[in-house]
Design a protein that fits this description.
- This protein is 53% helix and 4% strand.
- A three-stranded antiparallel sheet has the order 1-2-3.
- It is globular and about 55 Å long.
- It starts with 22 loop residues before the first strand and ends in a 27-residue tail after the last helix.
């Protein structure tokens, strides 16, 4: 799908009025990108509505299912991420829930939640080579070599905890079913990185940020919207952690993420009929 990253900025009108194409509000009527909001309710899933708001058109069922999987993929990742710790540390002070969640959002950065935009730019370099006539493998080797020459791990690869990120594996499975070219490119880059394993001292499989970047690129999202998708996905997790901290723990405690014990539900399987 075409990218919107280089879409030209429309010139302002000379009427003195500024314009928005997102939502129209009138007495007793709310239109989101032209669709009545009350008609969307119960008929569109949250991921489909997010796509409509960000991109301007309704997604196909396949795209809606793909984006829904992306939003679920980063819902939460335990107590150790910086954003979660930030939310919990503010919560232990007794601050309102909104302040705790805001602190968590402010903790997103290039090494946590911000790698998606960087990876989208990384993949775009390879896609440009393919459009110029290069093969998938040639493009993958070229963009990997550029990172290796700078002694940098390519964005979207490796994980501090997982040797094989199960979230990325599932997203790639779904993306490859749709024949998404960015997903095929990042998997080719993953294979190209194997040649440089000794350079970095560890395997570097594609992680969930890389998978989300590939899918965001295929869906035509602007670079910064890749990071926004992660923000939307993780927001419920931050709310849940802040709420749990406020209701289960004592105030003003020193939080050591390595000292926690999980006491929630054990392994469960989704009910039949949920695929």
């Amino acid at each position: 799908m075409s990218s919107t990253n280089d879409r030209p900025i429309q010139a302002a009108t000379q009427t003195g009025h500024w314009q928005t194409s997102l939502t129209s509000i009138a007495p007793n009527r709310i239109l989101i990108r032209g669709y009545p909001l009350d008609e969307m309710m119960g008929r569109l899933g949250f991921a489909e509505a997010v796509y409509l708001l960000l991109m301007g058109e309704l997604p196909t069922p396949a795209i809606g299912r793909m984006l829904n999987a992306v939003l679920v993929s980063s819902l939460d990742h335990g107590v150790t991420p910086p954003s979660t710790l930030a939310a919990r540390n503010v919560a232990t002070s007794g601050a309102p829930l909104k302040d705790c969640v805001a602190a968590g959002i402010l903790a997103f950065g290039p090494h946590h939640g911000g790698d998606i935009e960087t990876c989208m730019r990384f993949l775009d370099g390879g896609l440009t080579l393919i459009r110029a006539g290069g093969t998938l493998q040639e493009a993958a080797q070229a963009i990997v070599a550029e990172s290796v020459e700078q002694n940098q791990v390519p964005p979207g690869f490796g994980h501090r905890f997982h040797s094989r990120d199960p979230r990325a594996a599932r997203l790639f499975q779904m993306a490859l079913e749709l024949e998404a070219e960015p997903a095929r490119l990042i998997r080719a880059a993953e294979r190209a990185l194997v040649e440089h394993r000794d350079r970095f001292g560890r395997p570097l499989p594609a992680n969930v940020d890389g998978a989300i970047a590939a899918i965001s690129a295929d869906l035509g999202f602007a670079y910064e919207l890749g990071n926004a998708i992660f923000l939307i996905s993780r927001l419920p997790g931050l709310i849940a952690h802040a709420h749990e901290e406020r209701t289960r723990q004592s105030p003003m405690r020193q939080i050591d993420p390595k000292d926690h014990t999980y006491d929630g539900a054990r392994d469960r399987r989704l009910p039949e009929g949920r695929k």
